[in-house]
Amino acid sequence: MKPRKPIDLKAVAKRQALNALRRARRTADRAGIELTDWEGEFLGSVEDRLKTYGRAFADQEKGAPGQALSTLQRMKLKQIAAKAKGEEKLPARRKGFRRNTRDEDRG
């Protein structure tokens, strides 16, 4: 039996990112939703960088080592995809730690 080749995680991440970009653009075209010039340029430039370099960001601090898109690029892509689907709703923000006011009432 022939040994299996190890999976190239960078290539998988690149392929997934390219598919997500194409899916977002295709969904917007089919729904007849016009993307802004900036959004179209963003999708095109990220796709070009993925094809050329295998990832769309250079600074290691901006994303995980095995990922093809940075955290902010991933978030922006999700927003564009939601807009293409007709969901203009932005993700809810976390409220963080807050003081419990019920404790003050007891004392």
How does this structure look, described?
The chain is mainly α. It is built from four helices and no strands. The mean pLDDT is 83. The radius of gyration is 20 Å and the shape is extended. Helix 1 (9-31) runs antiparallel to helix 2.
Q: How does the SSE layout of this entry go?
A:
Elements lengths: L8 H23 L5 H17 L17 H15 L15 H6 L1
Taken in chain order, the helices and strands follow as: HHHH
Work out the oligomeric state of the chains in this entry.
single chain
> Given the structure, what is the number of helices?
4
Our estimate of the beta-strand percent is under 5%
Q: How much helix, percentage-wise, in residues?
A: 55-70%
Shape: extended
Compute the separation of the termini in Å: 73 Å
What attributes characterize this protein structure?
107 residues; extended; mainly alpha
